[in-house]
Structures are given as structure tokens and as C-alpha cells.
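User: Protein folding is very new to me. Would you mind checking the protein record under this note? It all follows right here:
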Amino acid sequence: MADKFDLVVIGTGPGGYVCAIRAAQLGMNVAVVEKRGVHGGTCLNVGCIPSKALLHASELFEEAGHEFGAMGIKVSPPELDLPAMLAYKQEGIDGNVKGVEFLLKKNKVTTFFGTGSIPGAGRVTITGDSGDLQSIETSNIVIATGSDVAQLPGIEIDEKRIVSSTGALELQSVPEHLVVVGAGVIGLELGSVWRRLGSEVTVVEFLDHITPGLDAEVSKNFQRILKKQGMKFKLSTKVTGIDSSGPRLSVSTEPSKGGETTMLDADVVLVSIGRAPYTKGLGLEVAGVELDGHGRVITDDHFKSNVDGIYAIGDVIAGPMLAHKAEDEGVAVAEILAGQSGHVNYGVIPGVIYTRPEVATVGKTEEELKAEGVAYNTGKFPFTANGRAKVNRSTDGFVKILADAATDRILGVHMIGPNVGEMIAEAVVAMEFGGSAEDLARSCHAHPTLTEAVKEAALAVAKRTIHM
């Protein structure tokens, strides 16, 4: 007799394990299927968590080497112990993975390790590492298999010299020259790690600007700051090939619109042109589940596919490929299955780039509002005028608030500066409650704090900022 569950979630990344826990809290008999052998998906194992560990460690390394003296702290030049830094990173991974395992057990969620596939509605087949098959029955299935590295045509990733984000987190020595293909979030974060540890970093981007989709003013200032830190950029440029036959890599590039080929020598090339939904091998064709042109599961407003009983969340459906977006969708679909009104407000999902300075954004950009014909007012406040940022010697960047010209309702908030990845939450809460710039401006902010820049930007919407 096959095991029978109310819900089976395939994949235990942030979306999958959160969905399983919430469903269990609501009284369902829940199982999860995970192919890695450990929980946490890309995010905890080879993505968000390990990259933040290296970002944090490399920031401290750079501070000790270049900034402590200006604050009256005398230290010997720091020495990099890369194996120890990688061990520190792994310790962080292990702690988070064990935490997810504990939470699933605490909520009585059954775990099956192996590769899940869907022969049809109501059934999941699990293939173990040894090839053994197990079948379980379920009333509902949630596909939460996440995404994989997007491939650059003609380029083979070996995770040694030509690496994806996975390999870039495991380099055993600091490359003399790192070429990053793609000026998106992943490339800039990991590029900044290795630059701080001693690499020369060149970023090659197909478009004429970095961070596609970011507010243009923020993007322009972000590139200026990264360039000042030592990153080099080749914009409007495409990589056409990589010759790995020699002791160093030879990277062929040419203008995006075509033209003369130029060569770059590199020790390591990081391919970071985005991610692709992981839907292959799930048997979705057999189950009759429809996919869009990008390989994503097509779902309705309740995350249901065209097949009754089969749902999908996270990177395998449309929308930003963000862990917190997947988590909110996991909670929402669990509540919908329990008869509640699960919902995700896609207009208020923050995005953060964890470089130094950080970049954080939520809501509409100026370019989007102009394209939609929406009249808006802008309030901006630089960190150069913020007392806490001044004494911390971290004055790069600004906070910008976009508010509806007629109602003053906040439509978008865009920040670049110190700790803005934490500060953006204030804007998210305000927007969730339909708040106005005036609401933020009249909310008392502690002094001296970086968050006063948010208050001042809100005041600037009405042209009444105090400290500038």
C-alpha cells in the first residue's frame, strides 16, 4: 500500500520547506521530496547563504586592510587564509541546513530523499540514488524545484576555471584576473568578493548598463561606485567564446551589435547571465502540465496549473527569482489548500544586492512610471548629509522615494548605501498599508540612524527636507 498524504512538496528550498511547514501548521499530512540529500535548495547550499558569508568576510578583510587606520585602529596588514574562510562559509551553510531539517521534523513533515517526478495528478514517484523507485499518493502536489544556472551557448562550465555561481563559491585560490560575464546581482556580488580578496575583476555585460531592471539613476551611481572600488566594465559587449586550451583562459568578446573581436586573458571566468526554471525531469509532459516559452509552469492566481491538484511556486513560475518571493508563495498556496485566502502582493516585493554599498528597491522605478504615464513626485536624500553615515565613513549613495502626484501614495523606493538591505523593510511595510510619503515623513525616526535618510527623502517629496 502506497503512502498517502494531503500534500507533497517537491523541493525543499525556501519556497518548498516554508510551504510544507505552513501546510503542516494548518493540519495537513505533508511530505517533501528533496534530491540533494540535504534541505535548503540552491539558496542555503550554493546561493544566498554561502555568498553572504563570503561577502561579509571579504568586507571585514578589506576594512582591516584599508579602513581601520583612519579610525585610529592600528593593525598589521591582514593575511588571507582562504581555506579557513571557506570553512567559515561551510559552517554557516551547515547551521542553516540543520535548522531547516529541525523545523521539518518539529512540524512532523515526512522527508523523502531522491528525485521526484509526477506520473499524473495524485501521485509522485521518487527515484533514489541507487535507482530504486518509490511511489506515494497525495491529494495535492506543489512543484518547488527552483532554478538552475542559465547556460551561455557554446561555453562549457567545468566549475574549475569556467564557473557558475556554484564554482565561484569554491575557488581554492584567488584568481589574478576574474572575468565576470553578466552585470546582474550574482555577478556583481561574487565579483566584489574576489576583488576584495585580491583579484582584478572585469565585468562583461551585453547591455549598455549594469543591473537590468534597476532604477536607472541607482544603476548609474552603482556602477560609478563599483568602478571607483576597482571593478572594470565592458558594456554593450558579448562573449562569443572561451579558449581553455592554454594555461590561462582566452575570452573572445565583440560589440553586442557585432563588430571586431577583442580578447581578454583570464584565470577564471564566472558565467552569471541569470537562472532558468528547473522543470526538466519532473515528468510534467506526461502529467499534462503546461509550460510557457521560458519553461515555467503556467499557473492561475491561486498557483494552480492546468491540472487539478498540481500547483507550483517560486522560480518555476513567472515573477522575480527571489527566495522571499518563493516563501510568500509557499505560505499562500498552503493557506489556499486549507480553504483560506492566501495572497502575494507582487507590487511590494523588495530586491537587494548585497555588495558594499548595498542596493535595495521595492515598487516601481521612474522608468516604469514614465512608461505607464503615471504622474509622480520624487524625494531624494544623500547619505553624505546623514550624521550616522558621516561618522561611519560610509556616505556613498542615497534614498529615493517616488510618490503619486495626486494622492502622495508611495509607488516605489530605491536605495543605495550602507545597510539599505535592512532599511528597505520600512518602505515595504509602508507600501503594504498604502502609506504616503507624508506618513513616512511624520514618523519619528531615532537619531542618529541611517534610517533618518528615509524620513528626509520622504520630506523631500514635499520639498521640505531639513538636513540638506
Summary: The two ends are 72 Å apart (CA to CA). DSSP finds 14 helices and 22 strands in the chain. The chain has a mean pLDDT of 97.
